[in-house]
Amino acid sequence: MRYAMAIDTKKCVGCGDCVVACQTENNVPHGYCRDWIVESVDGTYPSLSLEFRSERCNHCDNAPCVRCCPTGASHIEEGGIVAVTHDKCIGCGACIQSCPYDARYSHPEGYVDKCTFCLHRVQKGQSPACVDVCPTRCLHFGNLDDPNSDVSLAIKDRKWKVLAPEAGTKPQLYFLT
Amino acid sequence: MKTRRDFIRISAVGTGAAALSIKAFGSNGFGLFKSETEGPVSDEDLTPYPTYCEVCFWKCAAWAYVDKSGRIRKVIGNKNDPHCNGRLCPRGTGGVGMVYDEDRLKTPLIRETKKDGSQYFREASWEEALDLVAGKMKEVKEKYGPEAFGLFNHGTPGGHFHHLLRAYGSETNAEPAFANCRGPRSSAYFSTFGAYIGSPESTDIRDTRCLVLIGSHLGENMHNSQVQEMSDAIDNGAAIITVDPRFSTAAAHSSYWLPIKPATDIALLMAWIHVLIYEGLYNKEFVEKYTFGFEYLKEHVKNMTPEWAYGITTIEPEQIRKTAREMAGAAPAVVIHPGRHVVWYGDDTQRERAMAILTALLGAWGKRGGLYLPEGISVPHFPQPEYPEPEWTWKDLNYGKYPLATMGITTELLKASIPRYNYEHQVKAWLVAGTNLPLSMPDKPLFKEAAASVEFIAVMDTMPMDITGYADVILPEATYLERYDAIRSAPNREPNIALRMPAIEPKYDTKPGWWIAKHIGERLGLHDYFNYDDYAEVIDWQLKKMGTSLEEMKKIGLKKFPRKSGPLYLGDGEDFTFNTNTGKVELYSTDFADHGFDALPKYTKHPEPPQNFYRLIYGRAPMHTFSRTSNNPNLSDLMSENSVWVNPKVADLWGLKKGQEVWLKNQDGHITSFPVKVRVTERIRWDSVYMVHGFGHNNKKLSRAFGRGASDTEMITNVAVDPIMGGTGMRGNFITFLTEDPALEGKEVKA
């Protein structure tokens, strides 16, 4: 079992629905977010290209945040989901520094928080809130080990990239280009 | 827009860091954290209540999920609803923020004047506020007749007040949604096809092979099902042609982006029509069977070649030909999107006509992948007496102008409120329901003069919008998640209805719109028009007539009905009579000719920016609806202010830096109340600037929105009025930059 997400940049309009849905689903306090939108523009008018990316924790196979956690609060759940046990976290922030994707933040209550791929939903067979809400259906989630899962089918015949591959983290967000 | 960098800044210096130090070294010593904020709650522990969204006019059906403590945790789309297919847009998802915005209007407020002449609002009871409104309505009726009481309305709550005013004897109403938005489209498509384009628009984007967007920025306007279907169209490999001076989100997803010089769209459209006709690419069967006036059109566009259009539009002739051929190759599965906010240059009905004509030449009307034949279901009228016949209505305020207007024109209602315009019929008092006029209408000086002229203004809203500052009495409305409302019934592929019921009791001392209207009505002796205690009775009566019930609708939220008008598309060669003078699709508009307007559209040159000025183009951001969401805690979190988009070449000329605050000044010398940050970007042409509409609020009670960004509306003082239907063209305004605070400058001069 290997959970992963594919993000179709040919369809994403950068509306931020994934961000709001995550906030309401996971009760993320205002002023913070577990996922976010990056807009990247290239070229000179009128020869331009524009890419929107819905970004979040990459749930890396080789996760530096887990390796550097002094208490074991940062750990790996079934299916490769990187999670933080709030009660074990001392808020030292080592994981925040180690993450090449800026995916973690200090929750106002002191612990470090991040995307969980909506573990509480996934365990019940549902998709993450961001995937279920996306109006363009540009987010695909599922088990990479299952060739018929939504995510496997999404990346099968498409070109894709991952972010900061040079960091060696083996990230599990696949951006379809 | 929310980015990770914004977040880092917040967490490093904000409450996160402060809380960390207290907690880490608190009484527990070097402790571990116990989570206090409740995490996610399982759907099984939440109770869903049906509603339809009121954050925008798309009105997506949804479920509000309420937890055991009575708090709405989230709002999720209804899977059966064709407006959203179970997926709300960010505004609908963030709709919960409308309920929990602590800046909400909480109690009725009445304007008072102190002895020194200064004014303030005092809290009042509903009894007192309703007595005041009803008393003024009686007074106006006695002094001037009920027609002198005008209504500005928008959205679902507006309907209850339209009913109240009709019962009282006034049909002097207007909503910005017509003359300040989509009116030209209604008049143009009706004149051409004898049918309106409706809302949601009957665009079959899902099955199209070619989608053409003329300045329409789908994806930035989150017209939900259309954005979803554009995504389907991308999956299906459809060609997308976007015409926009700005590299919009839609442009970025398009096969062809035509970076047109602003204000020249009609020239491009006419050149496309020329290519279709003179290259013989138009749908000859459709044109022959269904249309009127082809020979006139052919003669009319004879010289409107792509080369002619090139000089005007800056789009190369080969691009014009190529895109015309692309459309013809995909026909009839082509959507020429009619757009929505289409009041640009004052000849907008003619531009919309050109788009309708193009649709007809491609044979795309009533065809799969073009415009489908929508069908709605009518909701039976709850029993009531006939409305009294007013002596005059909004129509009489036009005095023979704008003959094809189908709804009241807001600017005419304003002018009728100002004695110096000397209108025969004068408006003396207003009720404003659910529309923030100072930010939703152009020509703010006109609005201010009108507001100062009338004897009385009552405003109903959920938020202390700028309009409330002009009110004599403010009626705080419960949000859509706290009230019953009229049944939603909008034409679609399948007729359907949606229920809105309260998910929670109204917070604070707020009341549903229907309740406010009824209780004013009761005070005016209009009980027979409001013959119910709870609006649920009306809904249940209507639903039972429609073969369902409130009980059933509470469980399903949305119900579909079978089509009765026939198939979704016109059959090949099927006989069809259009509801026009000739019974045909009118390429040549007899209606326009009869009224003395050009029967065929033509390009007119519009004024261009003077030296050092740039055309102001405005639009939408996907997470906001006009000015109504700027203070929403969930949505302002995503985007808290607008910026002014400036091409790097222009930024260089002015020495403008990214993020620098500037004030904008328009051609008439008006300056924005607040500064706005510069966004230096290649995404905008050098002759234009772009702003997202709806920011620059001036009411301090909006703690998150006050003074954030600048209002494009303040810069729109030049209005090009469409003679056909009274539309207010707003894209003929030009701005320049002030890099120093104009207020400080003034003070220094005085000192």
From TrEMBL, chain A:
A molecular function GO annotation: metal ion binding
Every 4Fe-4S ferredoxin-type domain range: 3-32, 48-79, 80-109
Record flagged with keyword Plastid: no
Entry keywords, A to Z: 4Fe-4S, Iron, Iron-sulfur, Metal-binding
Pfam entry (one): Fer4_11
PANTHER family: PROTEIN NRFC, PROTEIN NRFC HOMOLOG
Protein's name according to its UniProt entry: 4Fe-4S dicluster domain-containing protein
From TrEMBL, chain B:
Recorded superkingdom: Bacteria
Keyword Glycosyltransferase tagged: no
GO molecular function terms attached to this record: 4 iron, 4 sulfur cluster binding; metal ion binding; molybdopterin cofactor binding; oxidoreductase activity
Alphabetical keyword list: 4Fe-4S, Iron, Iron-sulfur, Metal-binding, Molybdenum, Oxidoreductase, Signal
Domain 4Fe-4S Mo/W bis-MGD-type intervals: 46-103
Record's keyword annotation contains Chaperone: no
InterPro entries with a match to the protein in the record: Asp_de-COase-like_dom_sf, MoPterin_dinucl-bd_dom, Mopterin_OxRdtase, Mopterin_OxRdtase_4Fe-4S_dom, Prok_Mopterin_Oxidored, TAT_signal
SMART domains, A to Z: Molybdop_Fe4S4
SUPFAM superfamilies: ADC-like (SSF50692), Formate dehydrogenase/DMSO reductase, domains 1-3 (SSF53706)
Family statement drawn from the similarity comment of this UniProt entry: Belongs to the prokaryotic molybdopterin-containing oxidoreductase family.
Protein name in UniProt: Nitrate reductase
Organism, as annotated: Maribellus luteus
